[in-house]
Amino acid sequence: MAITLNTSDADFETRFAAFLTTKREASPDVDAVVRTIIADVRARGDAVLKELTLKFDRADLDKLGIAVSKEDIAQAYRDADPATVEALKFARDRIRSHHQRQRPQDDRYVDPIGVELGSRWTAVEAVGLYVPGGTASYPSSVLMNAVPAVVAGVERIVMVVPASGGSINPLVLVAADIAGISEIYRVGGAQAVAALAYGTETIAPVAKIVGPGNAYVAAAKRQVFGTVGIDMIAGPSEVLVIADADNDPDWIAADLLAQAEHDASAQSILITDDAGFGKAVEEAVERQLKSLSRAETAAASWRDFGAVILVKDIDQAIPLANRIAAEHLELAVADPEALLPKIRNAGAIFIGSHTPEVIGDYVGGSNHVLPTARSARFSSGLSVLDFMKRTSLLKLGPDQLRALAPAAIALATAEGLDAHGRSVGIRLNLQE
Amino acid sequence: MAITLNTSDADFETRFAAFLTTKREASPDVDAVVRTIIADVRARGDAVLKELTLKFDRADLDKLGIAVSKEDIAQAYRDADPATVEALKFARDRIRSHHQRQRPQDDRYVDPIGVELGSRWTAVEAVGLYVPGGTASYPSSVLMNAVPAVVAGVERIVMVVPASGGSINPLVLVAADIAGISEIYRVGGAQAVAALAYGTETIAPVAKIVGPGNAYVAAAKRQVFGTVGIDMIAGPSEVLVIADADNDPDWIAADLLAQAEHDASAQSILITDDAGFGKAVEEAVERQLKSLSRAETAAASWRDFGAVILVKDIDQAIPLANRIAAEHLELAVADPEALLPKIRNAGAIFIGSHTPEVIGDYVGGSNHVLPTARSARFSSGLSVLDFMKRTSLLKLGPDQLRALAPAAIALATAEGLDAHGRSVGIRLNLQE
């Protein structure tokens, strides 16, 4: 049973504040182990990748090869269900179309005194994409991470994925091929992150690493950050559904469970202005749970982290939604567009009862890599901008330098930086 | 004496690669101390701020107050040199004009099958700006951090600055006022970062913390990351000057020293195609060093981390510049515009001999908070985007859901996520 909160209760604020700060994930301290692995990969390269892959993934890279071959890809296509391959292509096209609109414009202009200024965007040269093995090995995530990099113009995209027991989910290989990735290695864990950051005999280093992973992968990404860029460290997934009584409780229950089935640490929250509707959704959740193949996971998530919050009217949901700052927010209310401008903090908003969040996971076109754990208050989902960087441009002639010099020299002097002042003044014979 | 490298030497690649990976900063491990301070501030709030400020800054906040008052600001204006105040306003106006061009456009559109998609940008609600005390307390940095936040539309900008011995550099307070900051606290160190992240009786928490600081501040920012957003952790400053012989060696020497005087860990690099010119610049550096008030710092930086790299021709400088990925890059060559498209990795580029980097520090208009330590390969300088976040929007009607459902359900099935499939199917009566 999820918890129930009611804004009319005297202790609501206390309970809601506690609910907001509940940690949903244990963070095991694997820093020391990871530090050793990274040092080892830096020192001995491929040999370490082979040893650790044999140990953790029970796969012999001397036989399989570190690199996935063209023939491996061809075999993956033969092993994959053709309808699913078509669905991946359909998703890729929609993701690509949407992300093409995110490409930033360069800007170069001349200001009133003749100074030329500019902002120029260039793609990161090489990007590494980590893909987990096992049950979290999602082909859709391969598309969501790789397509924006391709659209950004990244020239080299390298995928690493552990081959548990020697094999890789064929749909992950197919998704990589469909996305445009041609360099794939069958390594995982902290050792794969180390190889991407520092390089080995087989794997050339990249400049940025993205993609989800377990605690070891997350710790490795934190440790190599600085040497390379990293994306956000994603937490367990979450959905907030704001729904009025004019919804089918079964639809809303299915949405809450779609989130809950990901992970026992996932979180599903319903805010409604109708107590009877809230009850009906809870009953539908219990009913639907029974027929899910991942019922145990979904039940644990709903029991431990699920919530139904009762508000007096839908407007009261707005400040709560902004404090929750959910990764996914569904607005299943009569006039969702009226709510929209008031919602400030959310990774993605799904507008109206016919927009289940799941569409955004796969084929909506927008990215499913979104800020979790309230970080939508200060960060954004993955986009083309994450695979590019901006360089400032500045160009002065003698006249412009003369115009800006007095203020620059005054500030340099005030900050006690003589050489700063001289660097400007010497060009105007203002000082030797 | 800086080191000298020559691309014609047989061991150039080895020496250049070693040069690239030289660490310029010790990173003292202050994590444990910082962890204690943060826990203490969370537990006891203002009382801890007062105790630690008395201990580390020798300032009594019971007398001075934690908050800087309107009268303190008025006094700071009286204490400041009027010409410097005018220079700060001039800088503020130029920074604002440039950054206003960085405001992102919202995008909302309907695709060919009628799906509505969008990207909506909103400002971070509250931002904390850390300003160091002592010699690194630069009013120009206050403008560079605060103005983009104001342009982004951040409603609450909070500045923290330690009052060493009870006093704050009046120009820092004036710069804050000129930038539009009205909430300032005289606290510094890890305790100030903790107060911004978690709040105390006096200081309400923020959603993101930016600004430079010492090892304690950097460690505190890393530790509170996740609870709040943070900007990059800036390393020591650096400049790369590519100059041909058609330059005044004294101008280039002044530019190299302007970087070196910041910090003994700063780095100044000259790449030239003329050995005689390189020598002349080195001689000018030695000559100019003598008259600098920060000669000791600048000399240490030039001796330990400075470099002169001799290339056969200017084109040979390009791949080196892209590997160095300098925070600041000056192109003091005959045709800098021809080089520009080939330069891929740089925080900011200063084009032509009349654009000393120092102009960008103060009054160029672009931001002086830029990626250091080769991180320009994957990250950008501070901009308006750092104070905003993007929410994805998705809206389907029944027809659009029907069009996208087959691919979504196929992918959900392939990933073994029943409830995902159901969340879509149930809306179309495809399954119960």
Show the largest interface.
A-B, 122 and 122 residues
Oligomer: homodimer
What's the mean pLDDT score of chain A? 96
CATH topology of the largest domain in chain A: Rossmann fold
Structural class of chain A: alpha/beta
Strand content of chain A: 15-25%
Instruction: Give the radius of gyration of chain A.
Output: 26 Å
Shape of chain A: globular
In CATH's first tier, which class of the largest domain in chain A applies?
Alpha Beta
Strand order of the biggest β-sheet of chain A: 1-11-10-9-12-13
CATH arch. level architecture of the largest domain in chain A: 3-Layer(aba) Sandwich
Report the major sheet of chain A.
6 strands, parallel
Number of helical segments of chain A? 18
Query: Which range best describes the helical content of chain A: under 10%, 10-25%, 25-40%, 40-55%, 55-70% or over 70%?
Result: 40-55%
- What is the first-to-last residue Cα distance of chain A? 78 Å
Poorly predicted parts of chain A:
none
GO molecular function, one term (chains A, B): zinc ion binding
Catalytic activity (chains A, B): L-histidinol + 2 NAD(+) + H2O = L-histidine + 2 NADH + 3 H(+)
Keywords (chains A, B): Amino-acid biosynthesis, Histidine biosynthesis, Metal-binding, NAD, Oxidoreductase, Zinc
Function (chains A, B): Catalyzes the sequential NAD-dependent oxidations of L-histidinol to L-histidinaldehyde and then to L-histidine.
